[in-house]
């Protein structure tokens, strides 16, 4: 049964070595993420998994490593070959910041259908009596003129709806996020959030939205459900 979940953005800019001179601009968001992951560490869970989107549906073991070389920093997160996609790499980095050691890293195909995501979430929740998840996902990358993608007037409301869902631990609202719209708005977190929705359905968790911002045109959220 799911007893706690944290949601954080998979942005490599959370890592000060990557952000460099801009690291201070994200200090508040980084602190909110650490608070969320701290909540998982304090939950007393029997098992902790990190969930994030990637190229396929697969599970990586607790020693799986990732790397940030693609972002100009020769930084390895964990030992061994870098096999984790970016969301799981940043998730592992956040866990290491607070001394949390996940049991597995769950990669979800970014194009997975909502029903597949919900089923996968339900399976994760059934893995133990007390399950905690760190879910890595960001919102639209089309917020404003400095966004990575062309600005889209639908992006702010899309992200605001996600923020409301995370604040209220509203699994039904997350289930309703449309894959086609999420893709149009360059939202990287849709499938991971819908895994969370499947895991949390019926668990009776309460939500706490710790951060919602878009400093570089991408929607970033930090939340804790418990």
Automatic annotation (TrEMBL):
Organism (species): Streptomonospora alba
UniProt protein name: Aromatic ring-opening dioxygenase LigA
The organism's place on the tree of life at top rank: Bacteria
């Amino acid at each position: 049964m799911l007893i706690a979940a944290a949601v954080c953005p998979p942005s490599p800019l959370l890592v000060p070595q990557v952000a460099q001179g801009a690291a201070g601009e994200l200090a508040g968001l980084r602190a909110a993420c650490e608070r969320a992951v701290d909540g998982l560490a304090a939950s007393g869970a029997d098992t902790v998994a990190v969930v994030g989107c990637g190229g396929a549906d697969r599970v990586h073991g607790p020693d799986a490593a990732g790397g940030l070389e693609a972002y100009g920093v020769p930084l390895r997160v964990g030992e061994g070959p870098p096999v984790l996609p970016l969301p799981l790499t940043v998730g592992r980095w956040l866990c290491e910041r607070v001394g949390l050691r996940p049991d597995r890293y769950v990669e979800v195909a970014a194009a997975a259908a909502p029903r597949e995501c919900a089923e996968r979430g339900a399976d994760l929740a059934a893995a133990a009596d007390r399950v905690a998840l760190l879910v890595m996902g960001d919102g639209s990358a089309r917020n404003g003129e400095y966004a990575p993608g062309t600005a889209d007037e639908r992006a702010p409301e899309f992200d605001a709806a996600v923020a409301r869902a995370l604040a209220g631990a509203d699994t039904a609202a997350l289930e309703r996020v449309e894959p086609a719209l999420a893709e149009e708005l360059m939202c990287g977190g849709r499938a991971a959030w819908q895994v969370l929705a499947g895991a949390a359905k019926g668990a009776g968790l309460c939500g706490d939205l710790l951060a919602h911002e878009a400093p570089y045109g991408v929607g970033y959220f930090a939340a804790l459900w418990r």
